[in-house]
Amino acid sequence: MISTVLNSSTSIFKLAEDFVQSRKNANNLALLVEFLASKSNVNSKLTNCSILALQTIFTHALAERNRRRGEDCGDAENKYQEWIFSKYEEAIPLLLNVLKGTKHPYSVREQAMVTYVNLIKLESLYVNKPDSKDVFCLPKLKYYNLLKTVVSSKKAESRKSKVQTKLLNRLSEFTALHDVALQTWVSCVTLTKCDKKVPTETKISNILQLLKTTAIPSLNARDKNPDQLIFPNRAKKIPRKFFSKKLPHAIDGVWDNIKKWHHTESTLHETLLLLIEKIMDNLSQPKMLTDFLMTSLNYGGALSLLSLQGIFNLIQKHNIEYPDVYSKLYSLFTPDILRTKYKQRLFFLSDLFLSSTHIPESLVAAFAKRLSRLALTASTTDALIIIRFVGNLLIRHKSVQKMIHNPEGGYVDCDPYVEDEADPCNSKAIHSCLWELKSLQNHLVPGVAIAARFIDDKLPTVEWDLADVLETKYCEVFEKEMNKKAKEITLNFIPPTNEVLEKLKRTF
Q1: C-alpha span between 257 and 328 (Å, rounded)
Q2: Taking Cα atoms as reference points, which of 276, 305, 428, 313 lies closest to residue 365?
Q3: Which residues have C-beta within 8 Å of that of residue 441, sequence separation ≥ 6?
Q4: Which of 301, 390, 413, 451 has the highest Cβ tally under 10 A?
Q5: What does pTM read for this prediction?
Q6: CA dist., res. 339 & res. 223, Å (int)
């Protein structure tokens, strides 16, 4: 019977329109809820229309309920309102079923999620009036169920269409609002718990993406940014202690759960990014990250680089000492690290670590030598970065300039530099020279050859700005070389005559 009545989008929207116009058509709501609950319904277009129709009906019904609040409406009216709300409670989980199902495309599932958020927003606005103790803007259990549904997805589906990623991006429009963000962090304390069932790699990735797109509001969010709230008129009702106490407590709880997960290399990479970019500065005790970062530092490659950045933040802001940090940094400079997208971050961090004038010259010499050796096989853009970086080390640490020309040095049969030595101070780089930079003066690309000639001249007193070369791309180098004006070279002193040209044509 339902499929007969609701066989087109026009008929579905007609049911919603009739319900709004007259209470005689109240049964239309029951039809729509039953249609959405029907397992035989596989028509995505009709499902989408029924979701929009239910949103129209509940928006009207909840607003009318709010208008009648406080009035003596009688038993009949109270029973009617209870019936409406019972249908609302019945429809809410049905929207979640559509959201987590796989038989409908992304557009239908997105509409189910947006309608769900809009309806629980109306419930909070018209039905559940917040008291002084409840600072959450949305119904707690319903909002938690939404987050749980969005981050849960089948592994095969995530690989195939990445629908869950799109849903999380759509949800970020709400979690960027400060009052919703507050509730999201508190909900994620429970969401990230790992009691018995270990979360899958896909679920971990989804949770990390959710946290990455969720704002961390400050105290000013309550007073100065009401336009960034889902309920701007409730800005003054949110206690300041929620920002100063409950939010940091929630972030601590989320991190305590995350660090207990069994991470793969992929999820650990996402976790380190989230930690560095968002969580680290908001933890109550950042020093507790020491063990996690030191463990991650042993993975190598980009993971070690991200861990190193976290360690640098702890050294800089919390005065934590890491005895082997220079050895770890030294070991990162391999040909593989230059192929990652984080190589700019590596050079930036290395520049900060080596900026101190109190580090031994043997350590600086080891970095200069290792980088110069690396430049021999590096790409054009990387070679330009390395040349400028080594040049800055020589300008900054004048005692290392003897690696260019040492008047007291003699001749050796082989390079004394020990390339395989793990401890940079024991690599004997200070007894070597930068012959690699001299070799780069014969580089195929003129830009690299010209940059390497700085060792033949007097070094400048001011360091070069690495930002000028860190973002250099191949196309820019190519275009720069193509735009250079070259001297016109005469190929023939006697211009060819017509007879010579005819002879050449017959020859070829």
Answers
A1: 28
A2: 428
A3: 449, 452, 453, 456
A4: 390
A5: 0.79
A6: 46
